[in-house]
Amino acid sequence: MKCIAMMAAWVLVAVPAMAVEQEVFFSDYGQALQQTRESKQKPLLVILEHPKAKQQIEQVSHSDSLGASAGLLNDYTVCRIDAGTEYGQAVAKAFKTTTFPHTVVIDRSGKWQVFKKTGEFSSPEWNSMLVKYSQPEPAAQPVRYQYNYNYCPSCRRR
Fold first, then answer.
1. CA 7, CA 1: separation in Å to the nearest integer?
2. CATH hierarchy code of domain 22-134
C-alpha cells in the first residue's frame, strides 16, 4: 500500500515536470508588445488573420508540419489577432492594412517593425523569415575616419 501511495505521489510530482512545453500565443497585441519590451529577449511576431482565411494561423499552429519552424517559433513572442473582431479591426487599422493575412516582426526593443508582409508564405519563405529575424542585430561598429591633414577646407592651407 505504501508503495502505491509513493508511486502516486511520484506521478503527481514528476509528470507535470516532464510535460512538453506548449507554444504560447497572445491574442492581445498590447500584452504581447509589453512582454517584448520588458523582456527584450525575443522579437514580436504579429499575425493578423481574417477568420475566412485560416491558412496562416494553421501554418503557425501546426508548425510541426513545417519541420524546422516548430523550434523557431520559440524564439519569438507570438501574437495572433483575429481581424474579424472589432478589436482585430482596430489593430489592423493601426498596422494600416485591410488585406489578410498580414505578418509583422517587431524587434526585441518593441520599437521598430523590421519585417512586414501581406499574403501567404510558402514553407521555405516562412522558415527563412523566422530564421532571419530571430537573430539579434549585430552591434554597430564605430566608424573610423581618416583625415587628410594636408588639406583643411576651413582654413585652405596652401
1. 10
2. 3.40.30.10
How far, CA to CA in Å, does 106 sit from each of 11, 116, 133?
A: 41, 9, 9
CB 90 within 8 A of CB 42: no
Give dist(CA 24, CA 29) in Å, integer.
13
Instruction: Using alpha carbons only, give the angle 114, 125, 20 rounded to the nearest 5 degrees.
Output: 85
Q: Which residue has the cell 522558415?
A: 127
| For the chain, domain boundaries | 22-134
- The predicted model scores a pTM of 0.67
> DSSP secondary-structure letter at 140?
P
Q: Which amino acid is at 11?
A: V
Going through the chain in order, the beta strands assigned E by DSSP cover: 25-26, 44-49, 77-82, 102-106, 113-118
pLDDT tens readout for residues 63-88: 444 445 668 899 999 999 999 999 99
Lateral strand order in the sheet of 113-118: 25-26, 77-82, 44-49, 102-106, 113-118
